[in-house]
């Protein structure tokens, strides 16, 4: 009996070992599952969309409208998580460190996806390496606005006036290193003029001093200025997009004024941590393009003074490269450092 008991114990141990081996093989199989198999079931739980700026404003409104639409199209909730700070670098850094599984993506802007690389001395990530592009969602032009007492009506007249009055004009921008700031520098270079740049802490202060005549010009995002132009309180000299704005269709672009190829816009894009499966990127790309082409998407963008773009991940990658090539020399020449 004692001998049989030993045999029984040995058999039980063998069974346990066999089960452990089977479980290990099953676990290894799951870990080794191809990305395509994982992506086929995506999304199976809520997706976090990190917006590296505070809630409120046009960027936040667009991010939330898109997130809601993506949730409806893809069958899972897309939750916008605002993580502001350091010009967008805090939120972008969180995305760069996230698992590349499609459950953390970024609603990005020029700073964290491109230009901060040119300005910040110690950026904890390289946006070209840390993120995989998904889709370029929209662009928003910068407006070139003037106080009513300035005797110019368009970009050509501005160039002539600045050359006839060297060093007398100043231009308000919503902060050092902002798109308004570097656009002002690029425009001066293009027109062959010099103006004094006055950086403020935000748009509201720029608008206030433009209305009060403390600054001659402002270069900033359009929404806060459009009502004032329509009311005749300030004058719009031009917009910096390649096409005219539907909000101010009579206002010429800088290109219309004869400066071919000039474009400087805010832009909004989706990106994911590097290594995110192509199948997931393609699903997000297709769903976002569908949103942009829908009546709902068109209405949201029109309300926010934005122009729908869309396209492929490769289109966004090429666009980011062109932005870095355009702004790199401007930032370097102006010695902008954050």
What does this structure look like?
It is a single chain. The chain has 2 domains: 44-139 and 266-334, D-Maltodextrin-Binding Protein, domain 2 (3-Layer(aba) Sandwich); 141-239, Periplasmic binding protein-like II (D-Maltodextrin-Binding Protein, domain 2, 3-Layer(aba) Sandwich). It has helices at 2-31, 35-40, 58-74, 89-97, 110-119, 127-130, 155-164, 179-191, 203-212, 226-230, 278-293, 295-303, 313-334; strands at 47-51, 78-82, 104-108, 131-147, 170-173, 196-199, 217-221, 234-239, 265-273, 307-308. 48% of the residues lie in helices and 18% in strands. It is built from 13 helices and 10 strands. Helix 3 (58-74) crosses helix 11 (278-293) and helix 5 runs parallel beside helix 13 (313-334). Strands 1, 2, 3, 4, 5, 6, 7, 8, 9 and 10 form a 10-stranded mixed β-sheet that branches. The chain is of the alpha/beta class.
